[in-house]
Amino acid sequence: MNIRQAQIGDATAIAEITNTIIRETLVTFTTDEREVDAVAKDIQARGPAFLVAEENAQVLGFATYGAFRNGPGYAECREHSIQLAPEARGQGIGRALLSALEDAARQQGIHVLVAGISSANAGAVAFHAALGYRQVGHMPEVGLKWGKRLDLLLMQKILASG
């Protein structure tokens, strides 16, 4: 397994992973599927803040980060997203991706990474806790998907002291 910076050519595979999660789970609150062109633009815009895990030229998952909130006071804080293809789960790929993403964030001067996690995704809460993230917020019923009200859990990790 190899972790590398995402390339435009990865956009189709990334969109497939994301759209499967959108269609089949409550992991994300959105029902709007991602277009390949939009994913390609994100890859181009985020550069080293967009990583993929691949094996045998197949993208198994990705991790990326973007703005947490607007304004200069949040310049050193980013919200991340990590998603894996179903066949890639439970193999340590997510841990490797998030670790590499944290390294990239440190190199870019990012102080805090935030995870916004659906209350329907207990596995993501345990995953993040195992990697040193702590829950710092719980927003009841802010999400709605398929007629279900869902909570948003906020977890964060401080990447460097100071």
TrEMBL record:
Keywords: Acyltransferase, Transferase. Gene3D superfamilies: 3.40.630.30. The keyword Transferase applies. The keyword Transferase applies. InterPro entries: Acyl_CoA_acyltransferase, GNAT_dom. One of its GO terms (molecular function) is acyltransferase activity, transferring groups other than amino-acyl groups. Residues 1-160 form the N-acetyltransferase domain. PANTHER family: N-ACETYLTRANSFERASE (PTHR43072), UPF0039 PROTEIN C11D3.02C (PTHR43072:SF23). This is GNAT family acetyltransferase.
